[in-house]
TrEMBL record:
<dbReference type="GO" id="GO:0006886">
    <property type="term" value="P:intracellular protein transport"/>
</dbReference>
<protein>
    <submittedName>
        <fullName>ARF interacting protein 1</fullName>
    </submittedName>
</protein>
<feature type="coiled-coil region">
    <location>
        <begin position="154"/>
        <end position="181"/>
    </location>
</feature>
<feature type="region of interest" description="Disordered">
    <location>
        <begin position="1"/>
        <end position="27"/>
    </location>
</feature>
<keyword id="KW-0175">Coiled coil</keyword>
<dbReference type="GO" id="GO:0019904">
    <property type="term" value="F:protein domain specific binding"/>
</dbReference>
<dbReference type="GO" id="GO:0034315">
    <property type="term" value="P:regulation of Arp2/3 complex-mediated actin nucleation"/>
</dbReference>
<keyword id="KW-0472">Membrane</keyword>
<feature type="coiled-coil region">
    <location>
        <begin position="288"/>
        <end position="319"/>
    </location>
</feature>
<keyword id="KW-0333">Golgi apparatus</keyword>
<dbReference type="GO" id="GO:0005829">
    <property type="term" value="C:cytosol"/>
</dbReference>
<keyword id="KW-0597">Phosphoprotein</keyword>
<dbReference type="GO" id="GO:0070273">
    <property type="term" value="F:phosphatidylinositol-4-phosphate binding"/>
</dbReference>
<feature type="domain" description="AH">
    <location>
        <begin position="152"/>
        <end position="351"/>
    </location>
</feature>
<dbReference type="InterPro" id="IPR030798">
    <property type="entry name" value="Arfaptin_fam"/>
</dbReference>
<dbReference type="GO" id="GO:0000139">
    <property type="term" value="C:Golgi membrane"/>
</dbReference>
<dbReference type="Pfam" id="PF06456">
    <property type="entry name" value="Arfaptin"/>
</dbReference>
Length: 371
C-alpha cells in the first residue's frame, strides 16, 4: 500500500527479522501489553496493519490505550514474520496443526475422540462387584445357620459327598496305621540284621559253639524276608496315599467349588424372591430385571458344578474299587507268606504286583558315577 496507516497511542517496538525484540525495555513493555489484554480478546480486537510484504515497509500493531501503562508507549513496528503472528494469535484461541502443517484457529479446546480406559477405575469396579458378591454370600450363610434362610439341597448328591468324606477319614486312619507298621518293621529288620552279624562274629571266635552260626543264618533270613515284606507294605502305603491325598482330595476340591456355587445361587435367588414380593414400579422393574439376569447366570454355574461333581464321584468310585482291590490282595498275601515262613510265596507276591526291592545304598551313586 502506498499510503501510510495512521498511528495512535500504541507503541512501535522494533524487532528483528525473526521476531525477536531489540532491547530489554521494549521486551518488558511487550510482555505488559500481552498481560493487559482482556480475557477473550482475539485477533478481531487487535488490528495488524501491513505495509506490504514485498517492500521494505513494516507492519504496525494497533491497540487501544491501557490503564495499566503509566507512561505513554511508543508505537511498535513488527516485521512480517509468521512466528510473531502465531505468537499473537495464540492469546485468545487454541491452535490445531493438521498434517499439512498449516495453522488453523478453533474456538474451543481440543478433545480426544478415543477415550482411554482407566485401569484404576476397572480395578475399583472389580472390587465393588467382589464386595457385593461376598456380602450376599455371607448373609446367605448366616441366615442358613440361624435357620432363617432356605437352601437348595440335592439329597442323592449330598449323601454321596458325606460318604466320601467319611471314607476319606477312615482311609487316612488305615494309612497312618500302615505307616506305623512300616516304621516298626524297619526297626525290627534292622535289629535282626545287627543280631545276625553279632552271631556270625561269635561263630568265628567260638568254633566249639556251632549254634552261633545257626542263629546267624536264621536272623539273616528273617531280615531278608522282613525287607521283602517291608517293600510290599511301602508299596501299599504309596498307593493308598495317592488315592487319599490326590484323587479323593481333587474330588473334594470340586465339591467345595460346587458348594460355593450353591451358596451364590441361593443368595441371588433370595434377592430375586424379595424383589418379586415388593411393589413393581418404574424404579423397581430395572432392579428386578438385573436380578433376574444375575440369578440366571449363577443358576447355570450351579448346574454345571453339580454335573461335574456327579461325574467325578462316579469315576472316583470306579478307580477306588480297582486300586483298593489290588492293594488289599497284595497286603494280605505278603503278610500271610511272611508269617508262614514261605519265602518263595512272598517273593512270588512281589513279582505278581511288579514290585522291585531297593537294595541298601542303591540310591546313592558311587564316586565314579559322580565324576
Amino acid at each position: 500500500m502506498a499510503q501510510e496507516s495512521p498511528k495512535n497511542s500504541a507503541a512501535e517496538i522494533p524487532v528483528t527479522s525473526n521476531g525477536q525484540l531489540e532491547d530489554s525495555h521494549e521486551h518488558s513493555f511487550n510482555r505488559d501489553l500481552k498481560c493487559s489484554l482482556p480475557v477473550g480478546l482475539g485477533l478481531s480486537e487487535t488490528k495488524i496493519t501491513s505495509h506490504g510484504f514485498d517492500g521494505a515497509k513494516e507492519g504496525v500493531v494497533e491497540a487501544g490505550q491501557f490503564p495499566s501503562s503509566s507512561a505513554s508507549p511508543k508505537s511498535s513496528v513488527i516485521s512480517p514474520s509468521s512466528t510473531a503472528a502465531s505468537r499473537l494469535a495464540g492469546q485468545g484461541c487454541d491452535l490445531i496443526i493438521p498434517t499439512g502443517g498449516r495453522a488453523q484457529q478453533k474456538s474451543g479446546p481440543v478433545v480426544l475422540a478415543d477415550e482411554v480406559k482407566n485401569p484404576a477405575m476397572e480395578k475399583l469396579e472389580l472390587v465393588r462387584k467382589w464386595s457385593l458378591n461376598t456380602y450376599k454370600c455371607t448373609r446367605q450363610i448366616i441366615s442358613e445357620k440361624l435357620g432363617r434362610g432356605s437352601r437348595t439341597v440335592d439329597l442323592e448328591l449330598e449323601a454321596q459327598i458325606d460318604i466320601l468324606r467319611d471314607n476319606k477319614k477312615k482311609y487316612e486312619n488305615i494309612l497312618r496305621l500302615a505307616q506305623t507298621l512300616s516304621t516298626q518293621l524297619f526297626q525290627m529288620v534292622h535289629t535282626q540284621r545287627q543280631l545276625g552279624d553279632a552271631f556270625a562274629d561269635l561263630s568265628l571266635k567260638s568254633l566249639e559253639l556251632h549254634e552261633f552260626g545257626y542263629n546267624a543264618e536264621t536272623q539273616k533270613l528273617l531280615a531278608k524276608n522282613g525287607e521283602t515284606l517291608l517293600g510290599a507294605i511301602n508299596f501299599f502305603i504309596a498307593s493308598v496315599n495317592t488315592l487319599v491325598n490326590k484323587t479323593i482330595e481333587d474330588t473334594l476340591l470340586t465339591v467345595k467349588q460346587y458348594e460355593s456355587a450353591r451358596i451364590e445361587y441361593d443368595a441371588y435367588r433370595t434377592d430375586l424372591e424379595e424383589l418379586n414380593l415388593g411393589p413393581r414400579d418404574a424404579n423397581t422393574l430395572p432392579k428386578i430385571e438385573q436380578s433376574q439376569q444375575l440369578f440366571q447366570v449363577h443358576k447355570e454355574k450351579y448346574d454345571k458344578m453339580r454335573n461335574d461333581v456327579s461325574i467325578k464321584l462316579k469315576f472316583l468310585e470306579e478307580n477306588k474299587v480297582k486300586v483298593l482291590h489290588n492293594q488289599l490282595v497284595l497286603f494280605h498275601n505278603a503278610i500271610a507268606a511272611y508269617f508262614a515262613g514261605n519265602q518263595k510265596q512272598l517273593e512270588q507276591t512281589l513279582k505278581q504286583f511288579h514290585i522291585k526291592l531297593k537294595t541298601p545304598g542303591a540310591d546313592a551313586p558311587s564316586w565314579l558315577e559322580e565324576q
